[in-house]
Fold this sequence. Notes:
By secondary structure, the protein is of the alpha+beta class.
Amino acid sequence: TYPGADAQTVENSVTKVIEQGMTGIDNLDYMTATSTSTGSASITLTFTTAADPDTAQVQTQNKLQLVQSQLPQVVQSNGITVSKSSTGFLMVIGFVSTDGKMNSTDLADYVDATVNDTLKRVEGVGSTQLFGSGYAMRIWLDPDQLAKYALMPSDIASAIEAQNTQVSAGQLGGLPARKGQQLNATVTAKSRLQTAEQFRNIILKSQTDGSLVRLNDVATVELGAESYTTQANYNGKPAAGVAVNLATGANAINTAEAVRSTIARLSSTFPQGVEVVYPYDTSPFVRLSIEEVLKTLAEAIVLVFLVMFIFLQNLRATIIPTIAVPVVLLGTFGVLSLFGYSVNTLTMFAMVLA
Length: 354
């Protein structure tokens, strides 16, 4: 993300730089990129079937490291994520405040802090996407006041960065100890700012008359949402959501069950009034599709038996090739397992046709 940048700026300073650095990756088919007016960029690399997902991710990460120094400093500070997953969402998990005690920002902040990272560690989950925005200290600059005090936005950023850092304050009575010394203690300094009032008191510059210009003199500071571009609701009630992408080669049904089990385990710690819903889940469709294919496969075996019996007019001659059908199918499953292919709707349908 590039906070405060428009789509064109993100395209020129972030997206194009990364795209140019992705050339030369093995088995890369094509890439697509999206730059938004909210300052976010997304680049999707699509590989051929010959590519190994783990190798492709490592090569992508290495290529990104080579061009990361060319990106704006704020983009590097926010971090760039590389993940492998299939296209499309496996499921969407909604967190709803049924009693209205928590707003959308409260829910998104809680989910991001306590649920999102746990979901990413579930086997089969490729990546997650948070629908909603957590809390952040919002600073709204006044251009007139900046001009009055001869300040630039970069001056504000530098002052905040310098006065909102975690530092080591050292020790009292550190080694080597002097003779007769009886005290040895580590000093903890509260240097990270926590409240809007503390941010308002950040010193920006000193005037010639000795007065101090503080952040409160040139900006409005308040605790608000990190981004106001997304507002989640479910049936008219405040909500936050997490979309889950399936990892490459993972089993959709097993992953969905593992995600539901994880959410059920975490739900005992949720604040009172928070309810979990699943407004979108593709796993039932996958399960139903495979069941229908299995049903069709059984019907095909019965039809083969009947057709052969009608033409051969011999029960023994009919049973022998009929028994061979499941044996051949079991061999096919063995070949699929040997080459690392998963059983899905497409492979099952191919068996039916065969």
